[in-house]
């Protein structure tokens, strides 16, 4: 099963962290997140992020995600090849490939993302991408932004908003998703608790009423992130389309 492979790959990557976290190049850090959703069709989810320093001013962020769904789980592989020209700035090219179990639904997208420190302990993230389905004529353009605030050493608050335009002969809609979350670390340990709320909806030729999703779980982080800024968010515009069985 795809989710078994994803979990194994995440755990294997994180196992290698202690031996490399202090090196200038190679794996510098990673995060494992386990959580659960209140959505009627959603279940548990697991994700792992590994940050690799390739050069003194560049790196690669790798993401593996799996979400359990009543109508078929979704696995994702994401990557961001980024540069860090100076403190407080990182930007790069993004790639995401995803597949839904039990049906023919493979899709992907390519784009760009940037993160900029606008104040002490405050980072702004911008992203844009184009995507296509391998199993139909569905394609899309998506853009979004996020705000990361670190009010204390152990607490991070974040918010993000994404908008996606689907415009095909058989399906046309504009998808929106807004998320607010908070993460708190246990003292000096690598473990944290996180909780977030998302609201998504569709308007246009094929509208859908808004839906709220609550998520909570535990996160374990080792090492550090690229340029010591938050990891780039992997956004999947197809999440709410798949959950509503519109694809």
Give me some keywords for this one.
64% strand, disordered N terminus, globular, mainly beta, 247 residues, 9% helix, twelve-stranded antiparallel β-barrel
Briefly characterize the structure.
The chain has 247 residues and is mainly beta. Helix content is 9%, strand content 64%. Strand 1 (26-37) and strand 2 form a beta hairpin.
Topology (SSEs and partners):
Layout: H1 2-15, H2 17-20, E1 26-37, E2 42-55, E3 58-69, E4 74-86, E5 89-100, E6 106-119, E7 122-133, E8 139-152, E9 155-167, E10 172-185, E11 191-203, E12 208-223, H3 239-243
Antiparallel strand pairs: 1-2, 1-12, 2-3, 3-4, 4-5, 5-6, 6-7, 7-8, 8-9, 9-10, 10-11, 11-12
Helix content: under 10%
- Taking all Cα atoms into account, the compactness measure Rg is 18 Å
What is the total tally of β strands? 12
Distance between the termini: 22 Å
Query: SSE order in H/E notation?
Result: HHEEEEEEEEEEEEH
- Total number of helices: 3
Strand count, sense and barrel status of the largest sheet are: 12 strands, antiparallel, barrel
The strand line-up of the biggest sheet is 1-2-3-4-5-6-7-8-9-10-11-12
Structural class by helix and strand composition: mainly beta
Mean pLDDT: 89
Shape, per Cα inertia axes? globular
What is the beta-strand fraction?
over 45%
Query: Segments where pLDDT lies below 50 for 5+ residues?
Result: 1-22
């Amino acid at each position: 099963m795809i989710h078994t492979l994803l979990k194994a790959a995440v755990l294997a990557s994180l196992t290698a962290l202690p031996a490399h976290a202090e090196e200038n190049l190679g794996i510098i850090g990673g995060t494992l997140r386990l959580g659960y959703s209140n959505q009627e069709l959603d279940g548990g989810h697991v994700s792992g992020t590994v940050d690799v320093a390739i050069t003194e001013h560049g790196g690669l962020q790798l993401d593996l995600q799996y979400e359990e769904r009543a109508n078929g789980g979704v696995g994702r592989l994401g990557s961001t090849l980024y540069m860090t020209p100076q403190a407080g700035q990182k930007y790069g090219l993004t790639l995401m490939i995803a597949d839904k179990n039990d049906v023919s639904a493979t899709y992907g997208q390519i784009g760009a993302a940037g993160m900029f420190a606008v104040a002490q302990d405050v980072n702004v993230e911008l992203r844009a991408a184009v995507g296509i389905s391998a199993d139909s004529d569905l394609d899309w353009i998506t853009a979004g932004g996020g705000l990361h605030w670190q009010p204390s050493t152990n607490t991070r608050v974040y918010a993000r908003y994404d908008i996606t335009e689907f415009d095909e002969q058989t399906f046309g809609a504009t998808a929106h998703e807004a998320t607010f979350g908070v993460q708190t670390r246990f003292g000096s340990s690598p473990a944290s608790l996180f909780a977030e709320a998302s609201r998504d909806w569709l308007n246009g030729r094929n509208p859908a009423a808004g839906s709220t999703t609550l998520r909570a779980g535990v996160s374990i982080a080792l090492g550090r992130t690229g340029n010591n800024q938050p990891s780039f968010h992997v956004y999947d515009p197809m999440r709410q389309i798949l959950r509503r069985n519109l694809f």
